[in-house]
C-alpha cells in the first residue's frame, strides 16, 4: 500500500504561527526522503488552529525544495475563486515540478460564513456552480477547449507544457463522490472528518457510478485518516492528548493553537467532554508503528484501497516527523 501525507500547518501554543509554515516545509522534505507518495496541504481561513490559508503558495515552496514526491492541494475551495485563476496557478506549479502536481478541489468554505463572504461575496451562488467550475477547470488545466458556445471559449490558461496537474475531487459526503464519478476524476474521502461514518456508501457510489475518462479509465479513490505512531503505545497516547484537548475546544466553537500534552493533561473536563474524549480514543489510530500499520492495512483492505493519506498533529514537530518515519519503515516505503 502507498502512503501519502495531508499537512494542515497547525499552529502551536507559544510559537509564532509562521513557524507552522516552516515546519510544513521541513516535514515535506522529510517525507520526500522517506518515500511517501504525495504531500497534500489544506486550505483554511480565519483559524487560529490551522494556518495554511494559501495552499498554492505553500505548494510552490514545497515543489521547489523536493525532488520526487507529488505535491497537491487538499484542497482549493473552488467557490471562493475564479476557475481560470486557479488553473493558471496550477499551470505555473506544473512548470515548477512537472508531472508532480495534484489539484484537489472542494466545495466547502473551509471557514465560517462571514469569512467565506469576505473571500467571495458571491460564494453562496458559486457553490451551486461548483460542477461547472470543475468542468471549466479541467479544460483549462488540460489545455483542451471549452464547450462550443462557452463565453470564455477563446481563453487558454498559461503556461502550457507537456504535463498537467491531476485534478482530484475532495469530499466527506455522497455529493463529492457522485460528482467525481460523473466527471471521471479521482476521489478523496475525508475519513477523519467523521471518524469514517459514511465512507463505505460514498466509495460504493463513486465506483458504481464511475464514468471512465481518457485520463482516468478506472476509478481511483483514497481516504484521509488521522493517525499517530510513537515508540510505545503509552507515548502515542500521551501525544494524542494534544488533539483531544483541541477537539474539545473545537466542539465549543474555538479554533486555538495546539497545547502541549502536559497542558492538555492538566485541563479540567466535564462529563460530556470526557465522553467525547473516550469516543475519540476508541476510534483513534494511535500506538506503535506496527499497531497503526496493522489498522491502516486492515482499513485499506476493507475499503479496497491501495493508498491512504495520513494526517498527524503533534505539539512537538519532531514527534510528528518521527511518527511519519516510523510508518514509512513499517510500510517499507523506501
UniProtKB/TrEMBL annotation:
This is Luciferase family oxidoreductase, group 1. SUPFAM superfamilies: Bacterial luciferase-like. It comes from Noviherbaspirillum suwonense. Residues 2-306 form the Luciferase-like domain. Gene3D superfamilies: Luciferase-like domain. Pfam families: Bac_luciferase (PF00296). Coiled coil: none annotated. The lineage of its organism: Bacteria, Pseudomonadati, Pseudomonadota, Betaproteobacteria, Burkholderiales. To bacterial alkanal monooxygenase alpha and beta chains. InterPro entries: Bact_Lucif_Oxidored, CmoO-like, Luciferase-like_dom, Luciferase-like_sf.
Amino acid at each position: 500500500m502507498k502512503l501519502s501525507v495531508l499537512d494542515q500547518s497547525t499552529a502551536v501554543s507559544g510559537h509564532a504561527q509562521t513557524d507552522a509554515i516552516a515546519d510544513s516545509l521541513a516535514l515535506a522534505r522529510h517525507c520526500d526522503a522517506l518515500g511517501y507518495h504525495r504531500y497534500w496541504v489544506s486550505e483554511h481561513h480565519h483559524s487560529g488552529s490551522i494556518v495554511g490559508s494559501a495552499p498554492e503558495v505553500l505548494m510552490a515552496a514545497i515543489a521547489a525544495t523536493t525532488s520526487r514526491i507529488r505535491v497537491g492541494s487538499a484542497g482549493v475551495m473552488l467557490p471562493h475563486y475564479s476557475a481560470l485563476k486557479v488553473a493558471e496557478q496550477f499551470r505555473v506549479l506544473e512548470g515548477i515540478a512537472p508531472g508532480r502536481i495534484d489539484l484537489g478541489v472542494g466545495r466547502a468554505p473551509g471557514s465560517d460564513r462571514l469569512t467565506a463572504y469576505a473571500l467571495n461575496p458571491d460564494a453562496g451562488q458559486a457553490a451551486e456552480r461548483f460542477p461547472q467550475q470543475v468542468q471549466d477547470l479541467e479544460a483549462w488545466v488540460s489545455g483542451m477547449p471549452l464547450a462550443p458556445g462557452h463565453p470564455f471559449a477563446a481563453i487558454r490558461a498559461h503556461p502550457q507544457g507537456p504535463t498537467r496537474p491531476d485534478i482530484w475531487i475532495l469530499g466527506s459526503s455522497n455529493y463529492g463522490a457522485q460528482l467525481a464519478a460523473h466527471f471521471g476524476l479521482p476521489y478523496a474521502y475525508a475519513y477523519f472528518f467523521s471518524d469514517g461514518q459514511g465512507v463505505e456508501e460514498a466509495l460504493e457510489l463513486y465506483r458504481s457510478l464511475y464514468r471512465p475518462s481518457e485520463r482516468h479509465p478506472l476509478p481511483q479513490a483514497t481516504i484521509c485518516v488521522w493517525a499517530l505512531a510513537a515508540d510505545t503505545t503509552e507515548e502515542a497516547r500521551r501525544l494524542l492528548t494534544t488533539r483531544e484537548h483541541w477537539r474539545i475546544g473545537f466542539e465549543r466553537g474555538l479554533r486555538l493553537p495546539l497545547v502541549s500534552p502536559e497542558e492538555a493533561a492538566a485541563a479540567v473536563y466535564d462529563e460530556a467532554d470526557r465522553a467525547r474524549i473516550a469516543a475519540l480514543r476508541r476510534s483513534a489510530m494511535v500506538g506503535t508503528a506496527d499497531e497503526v500499520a496493522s489498522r491502516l492495512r486492515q482499513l485499506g483492505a476493507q475499503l479496497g484501497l491501495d493508498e491512504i493519506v495520513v494526517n498527524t498533529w503533534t505539539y512537538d514537530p519532531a514527534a510528528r516527523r518521527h511518527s511519519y518515519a516510523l510508518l514509512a519503515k513499517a510500510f517499507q516505503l523506501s
